[in-house]
Amino acid sequence: MITIIAAAAENNALGKDNDLVWHLPDDFKRFKQLTTGHHIIMGRKTFESFPKPLPNRTHIVITRQSDYNPKGCIVVNSLEKALEISKNDETPFIIGGGEIYKLSMSVADKIELTRVHDEFEADTYFPEIDLNSWKLTRSEYHGKDDKHGFAFTYLTYERIK
């Protein structure tokens, strides 16, 4: 089951200058819980936004750069190749960025989206979710608190067969 995982604002903003524009510790914990032990597929810029590779996950980086070879990663030049490498993982995760999300919307089975309840100026956006193709199957609201400057909702969408 190919799963897209993302956090996006009400206006679908993902980030700016290769960084998130909010800090939600509970969302980071959920990301870690869901993706640990799995393949995580991402674009080069997303990978480069990490201080180091994330522990206990197989990193697959998609790039057009033929000489790109970061330590601890598998480097490919297409989403198709990344998915081929991930075929033995029951749940590979597509973790961004914007272009990789767009490419993966037609092949994913599930979307785990954290909807941040605000709008942000950004340079990277999550694609629109076509509700003719996707059904909301789960929703869990989290209000703003002393650790979270914004309210957010975990949304799970599954592809309509």
TrEMBL record:
It catalyses: (6S)-5,6,7,8-tetrahydrofolate + NADP(+) = 7,8-dihydrofolate + NADPH + H(+). InterPro entries: DHFR (IPR012259), DHFR-like_dom_sf (IPR024072), DHFR_dom (IPR001796). GO terms for biological process: dihydrofolate metabolic process; folic acid metabolic process; one-carbon metabolic process; tetrahydrofolate biosynthetic process. It comes from the Bacteria. CDD domains: DHFR (cd00209). It is an enzyme of class 1 (oxidoreductase). Pathway: Cofactor biosynthesis; tetrahydrofolate biosynthesis; 5,6,7,8-tetrahydrofolate from 7,8-dihydrofolate: step 1/1. PANTHER family: DIHYDROFOLATE REDUCTASE (PTHR48069). This is Dihydrofolate reductase. It comes from Zhouia amylolytica AD3.
